[in-house]
From TrEMBL:
<dbReference type="InterPro" id="IPR001509">
    <property type="entry name" value="Epimerase_deHydtase"/>
</dbReference>
<feature type="domain" description="NAD-dependent epimerase/dehydratase">
    <location>
        <begin position="6"/>
        <end position="120"/>
    </location>
</feature>
<dbReference type="InterPro" id="IPR036291">
    <property type="entry name" value="NAD(P)-bd_dom_sf"/>
</dbReference>
<dbReference type="Pfam" id="PF01370">
    <property type="entry name" value="Epimerase"/>
</dbReference>
<protein>
    <submittedName>
        <fullName>Epimerase family protein SDR39U1 isoform X2</fullName>
    </submittedName>
</protein>
């Protein structure tokens, strides 16, 4: 089986580190990006041509950086955040459903669908709630990552809480 992973969001903070780690483990890594380049395909190429035939696994880390303190949360920025997560994930899942050679799919999501609490420790069994923009985003993002039930692929959806860091690992 091919050890070739396609990473949506592979130029971001987590994606860069994951790509480097996978490469060190002997995987071929291709990144989906807005910009063409070496070991990259664009979102347009993905929608037009599908997932490259040598790819066996897909990781979804797509999304506009929401931790940038210089960005204001304008309606336009919120729409970019939504499109970059929900719409990109839908496009990626459509391509996966049309790619029989893809065996596994991992999609990352945030934890903002849990209400803030100074004492509650949440687990994946806890009810998710829509109470603000970020909670609605996370719920829609996870729903977008649902593959067609007829798609025989291993799938994992991981809810990630990311500390903003000034140091790169």
């Amino acid at each position: 089986m091919s050890k070739h992973t396609l990473i949506g969001g592979g130029t971001g903070y987590i994606g860069r580190h994951l790509g480097k780690h996978l490469s060190q483990q002997g995987y071929e890594v291709t990144v989906i990006s807005r910009m063409p380049g070496i070991k990259r395909i664009t979102w347009h190429e993905l929608e037009k041509n599908g997932i490259p035939s040598s790819v066996s696994s897909v990781v979804n880390l797509t999304g506009q950086n929401v931790l940038d303190p210089t960005r204001r949360w304008t309606p336009g920025f919120k729409q970019n955040v939504w499109n970059s997560r929900v719409n990109s994930t839908k496009a990626l899942c459509k391509a996966i459903s049309e790619a029989p050679h893809v065996c596994s799919f991992v999609s990352m999501c945030g934890v903002s669908h849990y209400p803030p609490s100074p004492v509650k420790v949440y687990t994946e069994e806890d009810k998710v709630e829509s109470y603000d923009f970020m909670s609605r985003l996370c719920i829609a993002w996870e729903e977008a990552a649902n593959l067609n039930n007829n798609t025989p692929k291993a799938k994992c959806c991981a809810r990630v809480w990311l500390w903003a860091s000034l140091m790169e690992a």
